[in-house]
Specification:
The chain is globular and about 65 Å long. The chain is built from 8 helices and 2 strands. The chain is mainly alpha-helical. The termini are far apart.
């Protein structure tokens, strides 16, 4: 039997990718993984919490770039995070004129809880695979993520 060509594989992957993104970004799944926060926050806000946990106090413009959203949208998003006590705006230590966004202690605890719930969920996903497939799936996912991150960085630079 002939191996599928790149175009047909890309088409098949696009279908699976769409289903994966739709599922991972769904409010229902988010609510099941983060019940305390999902009712109060959009998937974009939950993503912002993770970005804030990984980035050292970004400015609104940098956070907007990382999230792929307009600055005005991120400003409102940060307003919601502040109202919930998860994030705060502070003056940058490097440039006192700049305002940066940081997680509060409550925000850091929320991110740690979300990461633990996601780890458990993805463990369940991996459990459905054969042991040899698990390692290969993680390796290929990392490889695909690297390509996607490179492509996204190129788009941002344009």
């Amino acid at each position: 039997m002939a191996e599928p060509n790149l175009d047909s594989l890309a088409t098949e992957l696009a279908g699976h990718w769409t289903a994966l993104v739709r599922t991972m970004g769904s409010r229902k799944l988010s609510a099941s993984l983060h019940p305390a926060l999902a009712a109060k926050l959009s998937p974009a806000s939950l993503h912002a919490l993770h970005v804030l946990a990984d980035d050292a106090a970004p400015r609104i413009s940098a956070l907007a770039g990382r999230l792929g959203l307009d600055e005005s949208t991120v400003t409102r998003l940060v307003d919601r995070l502040e109202a919930l006590g998860l994030a705060e705006r502070t003056h940058s230590e490097a440039d006192r004129r700049s305002i940066v966004v940081t997680l509060t202690d409550t925000g850091r605890e929320a991110v740690e809880s979300m990461r633990e719930q996601r780890r458990i969920f993805l463990g369940e996903v991996l459990y459905a695979l054969e042991p040899a497939e698990r390692t290969e799936f993680v390796r290929l996912t990392a490889k695909a993520a690297a390509v996607l991150q490179t492509r996204a960085a190129e788009v941002v630079r344009r």
